[in-house]
């Protein structure tokens, strides 16, 4: 698979408090030992922890989706900041195509050399965007019953808006 995202089975704790951020809510509502989300990048499987990766990168994912949906935006540099999913992506849109030049710095499983050998990804914009829809659905399901301040609630609404406005489904969910 050139690019796909596979959602693992996830269990969550019942939310018990108000949260400062969606990332905090994801971290505190997920169990430590469970399946991972898997991102397939140029035929390499990348494990992504719900508790310690997704909770850190959820805001980056929202920034990514905002860029992908912005018809006027053509280039963006994105820094993934998790300790076990740390990378830099330079994204370039050309009509309905997306090219990502990546530099993988720290990935769970020490697979950075393998990923850096396959650092450029070329994919249709629609297909790439659809792959993130399931990640957004999981993120929303983890925070749906949580509460927080106005910024927290706005982020929850933003996630739900993206879910409802991204057409299609990822490769593994069609």
Looking at this protein, list some descriptive labels.
three-stranded antiparallel sheet, single chain, 174 residues, globular, 30% strand, alpha+beta, 9 strands, four-stranded antiparallel sheet
What is the strand arrangement across the widest sheet?
A: 5-6-7-8
Order of helices and strands: EEHEEHEEEHEHEH
Overall 3D form: globular
Terminal CA distance reads: 15 Å
Mean pLDDT: 93
Alpha carbon gyration radius: 16 Å
Number of contiguous helices? 5
How much of the polypeptide forms β-strand, as a percent range? 25-35%
Biggest sheet record: 4 strands, antiparallel
Proportion of helical residues: 25-40%
Helix-strand category? alpha+beta
What's the total number of strands?
9
Instruction: Please mark out the parts with pLDDT under 50 across 5 or more consecutive residues, or reply none.
Output: none
């Amino acid at each position: 698979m050139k690019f796909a995202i596979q959602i693992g089975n996830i269990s969550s704790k019942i939310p018990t408090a108000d949260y400062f951020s969606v990332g905090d809510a994801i971290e505190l509502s997920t169990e430590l030992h469970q399946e991972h989300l898997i991102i397939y990048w140029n035929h390499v499987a990348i494990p992504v922890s719900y508790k310690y990766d997704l909770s850190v990168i959820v805001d980056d994912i929202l920034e990514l989706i905002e860029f992908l949906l912005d018809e006027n935006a053509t280039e963006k540099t994105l820094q993934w900041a998790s300790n076990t999913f740390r990378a830099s992506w330079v994204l370039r849109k050309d009509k309905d195509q997306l090219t990502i030049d990546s530099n993988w710095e720290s990935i769970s499983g020490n697979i950075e050399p393998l990923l850096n050998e396959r650092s450029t990804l070329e994919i249709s914009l629609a297909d790439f965007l659809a792959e993130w829809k399931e990640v957004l659905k999981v993120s929303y399901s983890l925070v749906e019953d949580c509460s927080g301040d106005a910024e927290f609630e706005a982020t929850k609404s933003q996630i739900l808006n993206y879910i409802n406005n991204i057409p299609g489904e990822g490769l593994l969910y069609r």
